[in-house]
Amino acid sequence: MTDTRSSHPSQKRYPPELRERAVRMVLETIEQTGQRVGVITRIARQLGVGSESLRSWVRQAEVDGGRRAGVPTAERQRIAELERDNRELRRANEILKAAASFMLTSRLCRLQWPVVGVVPAQRGVDWLRGRHNHRASRKARSVSGGR
Predict the structure, then answer these.
(1) Is the pTM of this model over 0.85?
(2) Tens digit of each residue's pLDDT (9 = 90 or more) over 29-83
(3) Which residues 6+ apart lie within 8 Å of 59 measured at CB?
(4) What is the C-alpha to C-alpha distance for residues 12 and 4, in angstroms, rounded to an integer?
(5) Same domain assignment for residues 92 and 138
(6) Residue 92 to residues 81, 95, 103, 138, Cα–Cα distance (Å)
(7) Which of 29, 38, 51, 102 can bridge 44 by disulfide, Cβ–Cβ 3.0-4.6 Å?
(8) 102, 130: one domain
(9) Is the domain of 56 the same as that of 97?
(10) How far apart are CA 56 and CA 23, in angstroms?
């Protein structure tokens, strides 16, 4: 009755047939007796499943059937799929940004130093882009107090 693919050793996986049967039994019993109190616990004990597991299955079945407000299973799966795609696209976007930055740096190196291997290792991208002069002039302006 336990599936070996569970994510945690103490977590039981119940077959879909058992879930459907248990939910059907609970809904039929509630319909026949008109009472909800104690029905889920009693049927869970009879079938040997956890009462909270059965309670969540019944709740989800009611949502899927339109008898309770909430997100139906099909929509929940679609949302999970879209979130997965979104994460994948964000990851690809970060890779492309890093590649573009690398290509810009290598292009600037080739423009400023056409001979391969002449780029000074200690100097960063700001120096490659010519910003080293701007910093020096900003410092001079702040010291002189003027423009």
Answers:
(1) no
(2) 998 988 888 999 999 999 999 999 999 999 999 898 888 888 888 898 999 999 9
(3) 68, 70
(4) 9
(5) yes
(6) 17, 5, 16, 38
(7) 51
(8) yes
(9) no
(10) 10
Print the domain residue range for 108: 77-142
Q: How far apart are CA 55 and CA 22, in angstroms?
A: 10
Of all helices (H) and strands (E), which one includes residue 143? helix 132-144
Assess whether 138 and 86 both reside in one domain: yes
Q: Which of 17, 6, 19, 8 is closest to 53 using CA atoms?
A: 19
The token pair that represents 39 in the structure block? 């029905």
Quick: pLDDT tens for 77-113.
999 999 999 999 999 999 999 888 888 777 766 666 5
Residue 145: predicted pLDDT: 58
93 in any annotated domain:
yes
Report the C-alpha gap between 127 and 109 in whole angstroms.
Answer: 10
